[in-house]
Amino acid sequence: MNKKIRLGIIGLGAEGAMYANFLRDGRVDNMEIGAICDILPEKKEQAGEYGVPFYADYKELVTSGDVDAIVTTVPHYLHPEIGIFALENNVHALVEKPVGVYTKQAKELIEFAKTKPELKFGVFFNQRTNQLYKDLKSIMDSGELGKLRHTSWIITTWWRPQGYYNQSDWRATWGGEGGGVLVNQAPHQLDLWQWICGTPEKVFARNSYGFRRDIAVEDEVHALVSFPDGASGAFITCTHDMIGTDRLEILCDKGKIVVDDSKKVTISRLVDNEEVLSQNMDMEDVRKLFTGQLDMTKYLSVETKAYESVWGEQHCEVMRNFAAAIHGEEELLAPGSDGIYGVALANGIHLSSWTGEEVDLVNFDEQTYLNELNKRIEAEGKFEVRN
């Protein structure tokens, strides 16, 4: 195998072209373009500028001998199918998010990957390379703030005008895309939320479908989750807020983390567990609290930090890490098996909103979800149902 991993880019749309440009420009020092695939004939001319073989069939690319690994920049439903074929043919697979549209489909890829332990299977969660979120995970994993009590993420910076949805027949459909904001815009946040705070066990949700856009899928989501130890969480997202908010809060026994716009982090650290501080306050302390005279610096310290990032560096870092993992030099930052958590939460949010009931995520009824999804695909009348 060459020192540089030869990557096959399957799908030369906006995302695929972005990765191709990064590789051509030498921004990933241990990886290069091996070949490009797209089903649209006109893409062959565009691919010519990269000076690599072009294929109209992904299976031909995978079996060509031109690539060591592939990345799937194609519609979501195709990720498992292409990932499995690559692994079957001893080619490493880096799958774009989400790993699959529904858990049954995602698990097929994840379970097959287990039969090929010599190959690397990753998911393109580029936000896991963001130093801000890496630092938050380290803080939460260290236990310095104690146990999680509550967390909320309002992420409404996905404003999309109607023209965005009108650009293709498959976009914002159940049969073509598999959902709306939960499967298109918010998978990174669904992953990060669980990566940092842990996996919730139940969810209750209220979604709006075609609320402020002429689409069949969800353009607004309000979800409440519960964690195994009693902690709670809330997730709010939409695609019709032209102003937008991005705010993550994590409340723990001994402090609180607040992230604004994925750039500024404020960490408040209590000198002891909040319950201990509460029990040790007398009525004089309470009087001072009510009158604004209580010296809060006795009880907590506040740290604020701003983060900056260079456009594209996160995507380049995912590819660099994937190549390093293939060479046995590093562990995958985002193993493909981790992709199931975001898919399960998105499916659970959908199912809860459809049934009006709280959904068990630990023992998720994936067949009921698939049945409900297929009802919506059939109603669209444009795509085949899934199995």
UniProtKB/TrEMBL annotation:
Which ranges carry the GFO/IDH/MocA-like oxidoreductase domain? 133-257
> What Pfam families would the database entry show?
GFO_IDH_MocA, GFO_IDH_MocA_C3
Q: Which superkingdom heads the taxonomic lineage of this protein's source?
A: Bacteria
Residues forming the Gfo/Idh/MocA-like oxidoreductase N-terminal domain are 5-117
MF terms from GO for this chain are: nucleotide binding
What name appears for this protein in its UniProt entry?
Putative dehydrogenase
Recorded source organism is Corynebacterium suranareeae
